[in-house]
């Protein structure tokens, strides 16, 4: 099966000794993933397009009806398939009302193999299966690889789809910095993109629908494949604790303004706030300055990830955590400030599309998720839906994330069935 061949070719890219992945945007591993996708797309005769926001798209175009200009269109499509990247405006117009699928190839630090790549590999394998069935699209069928979905390098999740939809200001996106101070603009430019061109893409938002296949990120799915009902509201907030740097050996405890102390209390407060509001909250990233063994820190930056079934519960969790942080900071003579870096409201997937998928697949389980996805960002502009493939470990964003070969195959078949219904009939 082509799925296994593609999976084995992609598996080593960006993988560390511990089995986790570090495929961060605009790095060597990211470039290698992009090259892999381009090669797979071209080997299938798909037209490859890279948009101005860093997203990749591979298109299986509709065969033109016989008539004036048809020969030129066929020749142009053949040229695109052979040569690679297209910026042809006619191609964009031809792809209005397209069906789009796909996911992402970037990862969180030491992430698992399936989150993102499963959707991309399955999409290409589904096209192979459709061709084996002898069917062709009646509307263009595309496979997307969205950039910076995890937000692991530049801090804003689903950045590629946020730029497409106008959910983030391009100027803000250009100025986002990684841990080494490199901006999104500089990183894009180093890979041959013009960061001044990033922004909303009306052509891409003219598609008919977007369907994303993803490994389930929990243990709620009791069948090989399920359909998503909704995405919980979720967001990321940055706490800035500012104290006074000093010597660890000569500064008396009573003279210290140590920002680590209120930070530590805030971590515990976030857990308490989540339990109080039936939410989940995580402080999994921290940046300490100067980060020396024998130095009292001068500042601590810490990030809170909060999610819940309702916006009220998310907001209450953040507010309760901030109140505790402010109280703790006051005890230690430390200043604290809170910045909301990103927030996504609850996403109820397009009801008619979701029901159509469920009917096509024989009424599989329908379940919500607490994880964010590009499908959630696009949903405010185009009909979107998601398929989940069972994850028996229940672990995600870690090396033990897993889906069995049998369930992966079931996912490919399900996606092919859905794409045949949406694009080929």
From TrEMBL:
Its cofactor is Zn(2+). One of its GO terms (molecular function) is metal ion binding. InterPro entries: Amidase_Cbmase, Bact_exopeptidase_dim_dom, Peptidase_M20. It comes from the Bacteria. Allantoate binds at residues 236, 294, 307. Pfam families: Peptidase_M20 (PF01546). Gene3D superfamilies: 3.30.70.360, Zn peptidases. Belongs to the peptidase M20 family. This is N-carbamoyl-L-amino-acid hydrolase. It comes from Actinoallomurus bryophytorum.
């Amino acid at each position: 099966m082509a799925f296994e061949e593609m999976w084995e070719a992609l598996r080593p890219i960006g993988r560390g000794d511990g089995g986790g992945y570090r495929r961060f945007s605009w790095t060597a591993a990211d470039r290698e993933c992009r090259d892999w996708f381009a090669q797979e797309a071209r080997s299938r005769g798909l037209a490859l397009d890279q948009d101005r926001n860093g997203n990749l798209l591979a298109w299986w175009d509709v065969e033109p009806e016989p008539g004036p200009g048809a020969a030129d269109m066929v020749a142009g499509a053949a040229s695109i398939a052979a040569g690679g990247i297209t910026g042809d405006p006619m191609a964009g117009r031809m792809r209005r009302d397209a069906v789009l699928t796909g996911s992402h190839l970037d990862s969180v630090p030491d992430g698992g193999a399936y989150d993102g790549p499963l959707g991309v590999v399955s999409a290409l394998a589904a096209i192979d299966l459709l061709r084996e069935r002898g069917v062709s699209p009646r509307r263009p069928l595309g496979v997307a690889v969205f950039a910076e979905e995890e937000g692991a390098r530049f801090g804003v999740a689903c950045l590629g789809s946020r730029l497409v939809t106008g959910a983030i200001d391009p100027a803000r996106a250009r100025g986002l910095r990684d841990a080494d101070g490199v901006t999104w603009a500089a990183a894009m430019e180093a890979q041959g993109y013009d960061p001044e061109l990033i922004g909303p893409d009306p052509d891409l938002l003219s598609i008919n629908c977007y369907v994303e296949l993803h490994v389930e990120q929990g243990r709620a799915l009791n069948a090989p494949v399920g359909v998503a009902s909704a995405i919980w509201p979720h967001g990321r907030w940055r706490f800035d604790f500012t104290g006074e740097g000093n010597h660890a050996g000569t500064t008396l405890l009573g003279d210290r303004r140590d920002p680590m102390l209120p930070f530590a209390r805030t971590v515990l407060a976030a857990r308490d706030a989540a339990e109080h509001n039936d939410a989940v909250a995580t402080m999994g990233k921290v940046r300490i300055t100067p980060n020396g063994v024998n130095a009292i820190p001068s500042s601590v930056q810490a990030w809170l990830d909060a999610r819940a079934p309702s916006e009220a519960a998310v907001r209450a969790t953040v507010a309760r955590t901030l109140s505790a942080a402010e109280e703790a900071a006051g005890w230690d003579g430390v200043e604290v400030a809170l910045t909301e870096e990103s927030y996504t409201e609850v996403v109820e997937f397009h009801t008619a599309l979701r029901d159509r998928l469920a009917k096509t697949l024989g009424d599989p389980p329908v379940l919500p998720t607490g994880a964010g996805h590009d499908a959630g960002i696009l949903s405010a502009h185009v009909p979107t839906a998601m398929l989940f493939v069972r994850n028996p470990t229940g672990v995600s964003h870690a090396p033990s994330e897993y889906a069995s070969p049998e369930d992966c195959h079931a996912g490919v078949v399900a996606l092919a069935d859905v794409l045949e219904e949406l694009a080929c009939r």
